[in-house]
Amino acid sequence: MWDSDEIVAKRDGKPTLSTKQLQAAGKEIGHILRPIPAPKNLPDPGNVPIDFEQTVPDAQADANGKWREKGETAYTDIAGPNGDFAIETLEELGYPNATTPHRGGESVALEMLDKIVKDETYTATFRKPQTSPSAFEPQSTTLLSPFLHFGALSVRLFYWRVQDTVTEYSKKGNSASNPPENLTGQLFFRDMYFAAQAAIGATFSQAAHNPHCRFIPWHLPSKLDPETHLATFEYEVDSVEAETWFQRWKAGVTGFPWIDALMRQLREEGWIHHLGRHSVACFLTRGGCYVHWERGAEVFEELLLDHEPACNAGNWQWLSCTAFFSQYFRCYSPVAFGQKWDLNGDLIRRWVPELRKLDAKYIYEPWKAPVADLKRAGIRVHGDGLGEREKGTYPKPMFDFNERRRICMASMKRSYDVGLYGNDERVLDGSWRELFVGGNGAVEATTVLDNADGNKANEGDDNNKTSTVHIPAKREAKQSTLDEVVKRPRKV
Ligand SMILES: Cc1cc2nc3c(=O)[nH]c(=O)nc-3n(C[C@H](O)[C@H](O)[C@H](O)COP(=O)(O)OP(=O)(O)OC[C@H]3O[C@@H](n4cnc5c(N)ncnc54)[C@H](O)[C@@H]3O)c2cc1C
Q1: Tens digit of pLDDT for each residue in 471-485?
Q2: Does 69 reside within a domain?
Q3: Long-range contacts: 221-224, Cβ < 8 Å, 24+?
Q4: Quick one: residue 316, left, alpha or beta (phi over 0 = left, psi -120 to 50 = alpha)?
Q5: CA of residue 210 to ligand 1 center, whole Å
Q6: Assigned domain for 369 exists
Q7: CA of 99 to the centre of ligand 1 (A)
């Protein structure tokens, strides 16, 4: 909505860590511009063949190569195979049909936006924390993010159509919802992450060398390129157990139906609700697996239709409490949080069909169901879900969630007490290990917090109690809090 570099300049180079900071900087720049109208037509390109010698790009760089089934035929002519400048079809690009029902293009986006603003009450009273993550067909939010990402929808058009609707609604004496929960507030989050990324630069999407990102010694950390200091797509498997959990999370076979439903919906449709993203991101990082948020961000990058580097990295930082948000004692339960929205488990029944017939009482925790109930539902709780799965089975839960939640919270507390950030010398030279568990490198605590019930999830998206950017300083670690941690050998 605003030029991110201008926002950064108004903040003297500092990243925006809350939507309030963004709005304050935006106010100094001026109001959000209305979009200019699209051209009515394009000039005829005439005859423009591509009969010159072409350099074929290196196939190694074809990130989508693994999905391609046939050769591409899309680029035989500048105006495309049909001479109409149409966007390439999947078939022309050599890919199989899409599994997602969501369709792209500006006409679809404008139709969807029209439909949304025609529902004046929905548009003007939208409150994000009250939209359900379990709603599908139709979903509870706009689902306009992929269009914004691909530029099929102007964010300024989105903003102004919503704002004009809200103005009309309020003129009639009605009370509209406000930022950050309302619809325009959602767009502020987007600009907030863009401007934060613009201030930090390339290291925004990683923890190492990132001054605004807390150092938490997650499992499966990225390997860094020694010259650029940027994360490569490779990672260190420091724990076989964590790697297995990560693979099960990615495949949607964790044994926790709420998580598996969301991960399978993501894989097939390329979009899940924001609070669904909260659930799976919290579960992978500080609320279960203690796996690095960069692993999760990579999976989202591959699977999301709306993948947006700044929003993806920023939200993963938020959910893992490494930046933007710090209330790590608010943890999403894969059971209670889903039940709050969807007691009958409809989302699970849709995406984990093997559990379709299970009684609602057990659908979030099938491992607790009596054998007779499982038999009636035609299902056995068995195996880890990886590799070829036996028909009629659903995997066992990969850990005791309550135990993992307590371990993760205690480990987070310890990392917060140590208080390192991504650009600290001790993080970069590996001496951080000396600050954790007597220097043996164990990253997880074994002494847990007594009050770690963690059921305070989903209290809204913006708390405005944000972290500050950390300029490296050789602070002494608070040893007192480290003493409570029991020595534990590192699993490699
Ligand atoms: C771990 C995680 C990863 C995410 N990765 C992405 C991503 O790669 N790309 C992306 O666009 N969003 C991302 N989001 C933010 C958010 O989940 C999606 O923008 C939203 O769910 C898109 O659905 P919608 O269009 O129906 O949103 P609506 O609720 O209808 O909101 C309207 C628009 O506001 C913007 N918006 C809303 N919430 C956020 C937010 N928290 N951060 C940034 N923009 C927001 C989006 O552009 C969205 O289209 C992520 C969230 C989490 C928790």
Answers
A1: 443 333 332 222 222
A2: no
A3: 221/292, 221/294, 222/292, 222/294
A4: alpha
A5: 23
A6: no
A7: 21
| Chain-centre distance for alpha carbon 36 | 32
Q: What is the distance in A from the centroid of ligand 1 to the CA of 145?
A: 6
Contact call for residues 64 and 96 (beta carbons, < 8 A): no
Helix (H, G, I), strand (E, B) or coil at 380: strand
Which residue's CA is the closest to the ligand 1 atom numbered 32? 186
CA separation for the pair 134, 274 (Å, rounded)? 10
Residue 327 contacts residue 321 (beta carbons within 8 Å): yes
Pocket test for ligand 1, best of 194, 259, 274, 316 (most atoms within 8 A of CB): 274
If asked whether residues 190 and 209 sit together in one domain, one would say no
| Ligand 1 within 6 A of CB of 190 | yes
Tens-place pLDDT, residues 407-428: 999 999 999 999 999 999 999 9
150 contacts 104 by C-beta, under 8 angstroms: yes
Question: Does residue 419 share a domain with residue 300?
Answer: yes
Q: Give me ligand 1 centre to Cα 42, in Å.
A: 33
Alpha helices in 270-335 (DSSP H): 274-284, 293-303, 309-319
Place of tokens 């010159």: 52
CA 35 vs CA 1, 7, 38, 145: distances in Å: 10, 19, 9, 18
Does 253 fall in a domain? Answer: yes
* Measured distance CA(226)–CA(204) in Å, rounded: 17
Tokens standing for 64? 């989508």
To test the pocket of ligand 1, the residue of 158, 259, 306 to mutate (highest count of ligand atoms within 8 Å of its CB) is 306
- What type of residue sits at position 308? E
Query: CB neighbours (10 Å) of residue 178?
Result: 11
pTM: 0.89
pLDDT under 70: residue ranges of the chain: 59, 437-442, 446-492
214 lines ligand 1 (CB under 6 A): no
Q: How many domains does the chain have?
A: 2
Whether 469 is covered by a domain: the verdict is yes
CA of 274 to the centre of ligand 1 (A): 6
Nearest one of 478, 480, 484 to 417, comparing CA atoms: 478
Q: Is 141 in the pocket of ligand 1 (CB under 6 A)?
A: yes
